[in-house]
Amino acid sequence: MKKILIIGATSAIAEATARIFALRGDNLFLLARDQERLSVIANDLKVRGANDVHTWAYNASGQHDNETFFANAIEQLGGIDILFVAHGILPDQKSCEASVEHTLNAFEINATSVFAILTYFANIFEAQNHGSIAVISSVAGDRGRQSNYVYGAAKGAVSIFLQGLRHRLAKSGVQVLTIKPGFVDTPMTASFSKGALWAKPEQIARLIVRALDRKKSVVYTPWFWGGIMLIIRLVPDWIFHKTRL
Amino acid sequence: MLISGWGQYPDAEAEILNPVSGDALQRNLQDEDAKSFIARGLGRSYGDSSLSSTVISTKYLNRFHSFDDETGILSCDAGVSLDDILDVFVPKGWFPTVTPGTRFVTVGGAIASDVHGKNHHNVGTFCDHVLSFRILIASGEIFNCSPSENRDLFLATCGGMGLTGVILDASIRLQKIESSFIEETTYKAANLKECLELFTEYRSATYSVAWIDCLKQGKELGRSLLMLGNHSEKGGYVDLKKATSSIPFNMPGFCLNKYSVGAFNSLYYGRVRAQIQERHVHYGPYFYPLDGIGNWTRLYGAKGFVQYQFVIPKDAGLEGMTCVLEKISQSGAGSFLSVLKVFGKGNDNLLSFPFEGYTLALDFKVSPRTFELLDQLDVIVHDYGGRIYLTKDARMSDRVFQKGYPEWEAFQSVRERYGAVGIFASLQSKRLGLDVEH
């Protein structure tokens, strides 16, 4: 029975992942903005078999001085084996291009707040010498593209941060998992028309849990995005700039 | 987006709404009050019952609320699937009291179709084990319904094909099981008469269904395998890894013809060597053999297929079934999966399909000849006092519907009382004359 803290627990990927943890009988602590939605999810996870489910309302953006808050959560949970960071927003690229505020706000939620959380938890995990930190980044962070580089920049920053953290925590035996989903059919992407590359949150969740179990470092979900992004990273600018990606 | 039912026929352009909560759904209804809606779960009804210009998907309404492990009563959202229920509850020793032949149906869909299973002769339909549900009606109000509370809306919604409103959540009763396994016994029947006699003889079996070879004629007409099942006490709770072979693309339609189906039928019948065969089998392959083959409907080709399931009263049994089977075998239209079952008593739901008698489910690839044959079958079914299953229907006429479902006027008056007419409508309800075309 693992003790798992999930931030952004109302996101579709986080919820699907929590359902797998629940079937295994884990102890869960869920954080997200909307307490009402959290309690609906908590009830569901209890029926599915979670040993215990705690929920607290938490807003990742704005305040980064959360040490006491997190310390209390860990105490309630009785320790921590897995931290799963899944919150984020998909900003509208066009409106970011027109507004400094939108751009910085998106970066704040998708990157700065993650750094703040990880700075605190890295020390906890380093001191206890075990456990897993899993964070949802994105394939969008692998190369800046005109269609979503504000989102991509934040996810890229998160990926680099995790890379460094993994380096630091390797000697403590702590797993740091960077999750890079491709297109996922969730309420966050409801307005997109979906093609063959789109995956379901349940599928992403299974791959996340498998990567956690196998102590992976970086996982593309589904796997084929590793190949796609390798090609996208290798395409020279003079060709890339002719695309509308 | 272009959508269709499970038979891939017909298809229609639809705007899909994906409300993430009951509140969001209420707002959807208010926003778009000029349009007509139909709720859709996993899209397993075969024809046009879940098609409309605006479709409300219940895919994000999929949470469990509570479970009482004394009584087996489960409360959950309408978008929760039987697949999910099986994954969570079989290891705890519980099983749906009634399950259709696929695990990929939602609780809301199972209520709207009032689905039945191989144990209908013992326990009735899915809705006979629904204690209550909440439904959002056209005005935006939410009603609690049960056999005693708002009974009129309960009776119209159970089997009502989503035409009264959107079911939000429900309380259903699960049954206790001792293991994940079924003791299956298969009997060979040389013809229809033998098969029906075996059904009567073994009516005490928990589950019973017969696969029937529709291409045989004369003395072999209705050659079949009767498969009985009882929950086993042995084997423990085992999660069988779900089989995941898949038909990757639509097969050319000509691949299914009377020769290929005839060959399949002979192999399938011949596979069972002994007169009686016993197996200890996992519930997965027993109840959901086709779920193991993703997109199996593609076997029927790009034009899709139609299912045809009817029931005729018990006293019409042998004679009526013989008449239908003769018609089919003469036509040579191969039905790949032909399933015969004896129904127990019906219930009070206004549009529920099952009543005491014999039911046969057939499928045919879409072609002009198929539609001609089905029109002829309609006449026979009607002459014997039968009806056709709305969940599988894609082509029945309004006249055939009205004759088969004498309570349709009572159903329509409940819809009027709750403001549903014209608001909750499907291509099927328009075809059947329950709603008008715009």
Compact summary:
The complex is a heterodimer of chains A (about 240) and B (about 450). Helix content of chain A is about 50%, strand content about 15%.
Task: Pick out its properties.
heterodimer; A: 245 residues; Rossmann fold; 7-stranded parallel sheet; 7 strands; B: 438 residues; alpha+beta; Alpha-Beta Plaits; 8-stranded antiparallel sheet; 6-stranded antiparallel sheet; 13 helices; 27% helix; 25% strand; globular
Describe the structure in your own words.
The complex is a heterodimer of chains A (about 240) and B (about 450). Chain A has about 240 residues and is α/β, with parallel strands linked by helices. Chain A has a single domain, classed as NAD(P)-binding Rossmann-like Domain (Rossmann fold). In chain A, about 50% of the residues lie in helices and about 15% in strands. Chain A has helices at about 10-25, 35-50, 65-75, 95, 100-130, 150-170, 200-215, 225-235, 235-240, and strands at about 5, 25-30, 50-55, 80-85, 130-135, 175-180, 220. In chain A, strands 3-2-1-4-5-6-7 form a 7-stranded parallel sheet, sandwiched between helices. In chain A, helix 1 runs parallel beside helix 2 (about 35-50) and helix 5 runs parallel beside helix 6. The mean pLDDT of chain A is about 95. Helices cover about 25% and strands about 25% of the residues of chain B. Chain B is α+β, with helices and mostly antiparallel strands and about 450 residues long. Chain B has an 8-stranded antiparallel sheet. In chain B, strands 6, 7, 8, 9, 10 and 11 form a 6-stranded antiparallel sheet that branches. Chain B has helices at about 20-30, 80-90, 105-110, 120-125, 150-155, 190-200, 260-270, 285, 315-330, 370-385, 400-405, 410-415, 425-430, and strands at about 1-5, 10-15, 15, 35-40, 55, 65-70, 75, 95, 130-135, 140-145, 165-175, 180-190, 205-210, 225-230, 245, 275-280, 295, 305-315, 340-345, 355-365, 385-390. The interface between A and B is medium-sized, with 13 and 15 residues.
